[in-house]
Structures are given as C-alpha cells and as structure tokens.
Design a protein that fits this description.
This protein has 420 residues and is of the alpha/beta class. The protein folds into two domains: 86 residues, Urease, subunit C, domain 1 (Roll), CATH 2.30.40; 301 residues, Metal-dependent hydrolases (TIM Barrel, Alpha-Beta Barrel), CATH 3.20.20. The strands form four sheets. The protein has a five-stranded parallel beta sheet, with helices on both faces. Strands 3-2-1-4 form a four-stranded mixed beta sheet, with no helix packed on it. A four-stranded antiparallel beta sheet has the order 5-14-15-16, with no helix packed on it. Helix 6 links the parallel strand 10 and strand 11. Helix 6 runs parallel beside helix 7. Its EC number is 3.5.4.1. This is Cytosine deaminase.
C-alpha cells in the first residue's frame, strides 16, 4: 500500500521500528506494533497495516526558538556571519517589529513546525526597549490560535546589563507573569553579575516564575557565567526549573575546570539545552580563516552527570542563523553528526522528545497506551537510514490522523521584507 495511506477508523501499525527507550525497554531499536484507538495509543484492534519496518517517534518538543526573529533575513541579513553582526542587525530591525509583522512571521514558523511534526514549542521574545508591549500580546494571541496543535510557552529575552530591580525589567517580569511565561536573561561576564543574578532570582521567585538563560554563547574560555548561575541557584535555593542554553565556552576551557562547572550544574539541578546548528554557524567565525571549533557544549559529559540535556532549533532564517525550518528531524540529524551522538548511548532520541518536555513542564510525549497518537512516521528501518535522508516524505499523525504537511511558501513573506 501507499506509505501515506492509512485507514480512517481504528487501526494497528504492525511491523514498526521504535527506539526501545521510548517504550521503557533496554536496547536500541526494536520491532513492534502500535494501535490507534479513538485518536490514542490503545490495545490492538482494527485493520492491521504492515509498515515494513517504518520508524515511529512521538511528536517533537522544540524548547529553544525565536519565533519573533524568524524569517527576517530577507530584509536584515547578517553582514559578516558573526555574533556581533547578528546582534547589531537584529537591534536595527526592531523598528520593523510591529504586531502585524511579528504575528505573520510567528504564524509562518509555527506552520512549518507543525508540518514537520513538532507539538510543543518554547520561544524567546526580545523584550527590552518597549518591545515586550508589542510582542507579548501577539504571542498570547498565537498561543490561543494554535491551542490543540502546538503547545506554546514564551520566555522574556533581555540582557543582564539591562537588569534592574525596578523600571522596565520589572515591567517585563510583570508581563511575563500575567501571560504565564518564563523569566529569561542573557548573561555576560560583567563585574557585578552575581548581584544581578540575585536580583533576577528574587524577581522570579516573587512572581512564581521559572528561569531560562542564554549563557556563555562565546568561544572565550574566560566566560564562566554558567558557573555563577549554578552557584547562585545553590546559594539561594531557587527551586523553580532553570534552563541554561548554549554554553559554548565550556568547549574551550581547560577540561578540569569545565567538568568541575558541570558538577555544579548537576548539583544545582539545571537543565541544559544545546543549539548546535546556530552555534556552528556563528562561533569561531573569522573572515579568511577556517573555523577550528564546533561551538557545541559538552553534552556527553553533562549527560554522564545525570543532567537533563536537550537539543533545539534556535534561530530560523534570521541574522543569528541564516537557515533552518523549525524541523526537529534536521536538528536530530545535525546534532548527531556535530556532537557524535552515534556509537554511544542508545537513548539520545529523548533529548528531542521527553527531555525538553520535562525541562519546560510540558506533558511528556509517550508511546504508551492512553497517550495521544501524535506520531512522526518515517520510511527508515535503522538509524543510518533515518539520518542519511531528510525524511521529507514522513507522515505526521495528530490524534491518529495524518495531517496536511504542505509547507508555507516563502513568497508569503515578501511584503514584510520591504522596508522604507
């Protein structure tokens, strides 16, 4: 039968390949069957469909994205591919971020994510200089619009250099709390970082908010703000979930120092998210010089310490990353190659599914009876087949029914790319 043709009623996907860890079993890939009953995974019944070994995964969780920046490349390209080039270009483009502009680009990205098989997304939203007044109401609108298809969370994005216990940062925190979001900050090695973090965690605790940081997104081994965050969490006893993303400088530090910092991270219970595609694009870039460093953080060493490790998309077609399509299979494929996730533990798939869901507090994706039949089915019978191709012919099931996977046309964005 045609790979995409599935029965309309209850049915059983027989002869499918599933990572054993997603079924709570030992080993790597196993052959099994999954039954779809009233839109959920249930006991075997209905028509049996031989899937010829097709791989089945639960829908993905993309826990670190920038929906507000997505797809501005057409009007705001990075002039040199560097981090500072990206930062300055985005700041200049903020003048174009009207509610209508942000709304259209967010919706475009979410349609891509949905078509690719993502059901949970956390996005960071640039919030300083009054941008929170424009972007956060749009996010709340999009969260309602996409309810039932993609669960959405938002994190405020603001620099630690702009932190103050009152003023705009407090207004941002109030907006985050009113919207049910997460308090975020970008940390740099400023002299009084510890005091700023103490104020930040007090602000989050007073409002009952979790925290999510952009941390050490640099190849400078002297940037150790991750260490200060972990020490501050331990000192304050801050007990809400804390996510730390990027951590590029760990890869350039002396190994003993980096591992000692990870010991602190484990003790503090922080969640790590690695963004390998964006970091490979930005880090160690110098004109006329071949890059030496990969930019990816120490994911194997973190996992070995029991730290919850995830991977995510990060930026999409904006000055921080010129490419991407909100496709978590692309993230899986590139993370596996960049971070050598092969030839080691067999449960790295959880870093794209259940680990990020746990870090964010989303309902965990599962393949157990009673779980929603929100599945991604690929014509691949092994990991080498899975990673060798982009799986562009995948089937995405939501509540047991195949969705229309047509991607939006970039031409939709043409009018937004015109600036005065």
């Amino acid at each position: 039968m045609d790979f995409r043709a599935l029965p309309s009623g209850d049915y059983t996907l027989s002869n499918v390949t599933v990572p054993a860890c997603l079924l709570g079993q030992e080993g790597d890939l196993i052959r099994t069957e999954l039954s779809i009953v009233d839109g959920k995974i249930g006991p075997a019944q209905g028509v049996a469909v031989d899937m010829n070994g097709a791989m089945v995964l639960p829908c993905f969780t993309d826990m670190h994205t920038h929906l507000d920046k997505g797809h501005i490349w057409g009007r705001a390209p990075n002039p040199d591919g560097t981090f500072m080039g990206a930062l300055n270009t985005v700041r200049a483009d903020h003048a174009n971020w009207s509610p209508d502009d942000v709304r259209a680009r967010m919706d475009f990205s979410l349609r891509c994510a949905f078509a690719h098989g993502t059901s949970r997304v956390r996005t960071h939203l640039d919030s300083m200089n009054g941008q929170y007044e424009r972007s956060w109401p749009v996010f709340a609108e999009m969260r309602e619009k996409w309810a039932g298809r993609i669960d959405l969370q938002a994190v405020s994005l603001a620099s630690c250099e702009g932190f103050e216990t009152g003023g705009e940062f407090a207004q941002i925190a109030d907006t985050v709390a009113a919207t049910g979001g997460v308090l975020g900050m970008v940390t740099y090695p400023v002299p009084d970082l510890k005091e700023r973090l103490l104020g930040f965690f007090n602000m989050a605790a007073d409002r009952g908010l979790a925290a999510d940081f952009h941390v050490d997104e640099t190849m400078d081994p002297g940037s150790e703000t991750l260490r200060v965050i972990a020490e501050t969490v331990l000192e304050t006893g801050f007990d809400a979930p804390v996510v730390v993303g990027h951590l590029c400088s760990l890869s350039t530090q002396l190994e003993a120092r980096a591992l000692d910092t990870l010991d602190l991270v484990a003790k503090a219970g922080l969640n790590i998210v690695s963004l390998p595609m964006c970091n490979l694009y930005l880090q160690d870039r110098t004109a006329g010089r071949t890059p030496r460093g990969r930019g990816i953080t120490l994911v194997h060493e973190a996992k070995a310490r029991g730290i919850n490790v995830s991977f995510a998309s990060d930026n999409t077609r904006d000055p921080f990353y010129a490419y991407g399509d909100m496709d978590m299979i692309e993230v899986m494929r590139e993370a596996t190659r960049i971070g050598h996730l092969d030839h080691c533990e067999t449960d790295w798939v959880t870093a794209f599914t259940s680990n990020p869901a746990s870090a964010c507090g989303f309902d965990a994706p599962a393949l157990v009876p009673g779980a929603p039949a929100d599945l991604v089915i690929c014509r691949a019978r092994s990991w080498t087949e899975f990673f060798a191709r982009p799986q562009s012919n995948r089937i995405v099931l939501r509540d047991g029914r195949a969705i229309d996977r047509t991607l939006p046309d970039y031409a939709e964005l043409d009018t937004l790319m015109r600036t005065e």
